[in-house]
Amino acid sequence: MIISKPPFCPVHFEAPDLLDSGFHASTDMHALWAELRENQPLYRADPGGGREPFWVVTRHEDVSRVLRSHTEFSSRRGTILSILDLNTPDIATDNMLADTDPPRHREFREPLNKAFAPRVVATQEELLRNLARDMLQSALDADVYDIAKSTMMFPMAVTGTLMGLPPESWERLVELVMMTIAYDDPDYSTGSGQATVRQARHELFEYFREEFSSRSRDDADPDVIGTLRAMDLTEGPLSQEQALLNCFVLLIGANVTTPHALCTLFTLWAEHPEQFRAVRENPDLRASCLQELLRWSSPVTALMRYAVTDLELHGRTIRAGEPVSAWLGSANRDERVFKDPYTFDVTRQPNRHVAFGVGPHYCIGAGLAKVGLEIFLDEMLDLVDTVEIAGEVRHVASHFVPGYKNMPVRFTPRKVAAG
Question: Regarding the domain with residue range 18-413, which homologous superfamily does it belong to in the CATH classification?
Fold first, then answer.
């Protein structure tokens, strides 16, 4: 087991701006969350600058309640913490999978579930395995290899294939995704945060508009865009604008989580190779290892909901309409749920992590992500002996995904005994 003591350093709350990407990049968020879970389990954050205050929940029980109970906490006004005014009307309300509540949510979800069904994901196994092998071989062939960018292309290739998008567009789509979720990062920013987000959204919507227009509703394409074109809602066929909104959210969701989990895997392997030798020696540990990797990495930091009615929580009143943020990274270290939460343990059972959310909005691409991580772990165990972090690791400046943008590594190949 990997024991990492909880970082209970002093945490100050005079004016923490939880919407400031730089704050996330420079702050020990696990120390902050531990302090909040213990002393302020319902915290009111005020980012200032005329932006709307919002509630913060950090305990596993509260995070699960906020994400699960759509009758108390609605997704209709948006689900991602944003630099934009939280009270700004959302054009995606009831028109995009993420911004709906049941029963409307099921109208979007059920057809898309088929597009991401296990049998469909299984058709991509060869692609995933080849991508993983190519990436690992590139690292093995080099002295030092910056693997972070390659991890970004790993899910994009699969998502692009499932959506029927031409490979020559994948690299730019990854850049636009990063501009959307890391708008303050100097490597992705094109000006102010708002200007960067708007440019990325505009370009993505125009891209998907062309893709959507080039297809016929009668096409028998099995890909995701074909599914959207054929979708019917209560009021009639899915409109083009509704299709564009859903293409946008599916692309974002599919491409921001897996890279972070993979880079976390490399870090853990470098620091504690004995854990992965144990997994190699006992294949039965692979499933629990992957679940623990997801708990440890928590690829999505937080999700947003809005209170439906006035309600009491931890002795305070959340008023109807107020935004409430649920911090998944904190819930996955909650001492009330996980024994030794700061211990990475590939044998951990049970493991009630919320890395993919819970409830109606459980990540629709979770199956694809799990298969991808499973295959990647298999290939790592087969090909790689040791991992060394061989240079400065740089994190993405984002309050949505605690990702990596540079990770120089040195891999050594596994030597298999003859015979």
Answer: Cytochrome P450 (1.10.630.10)
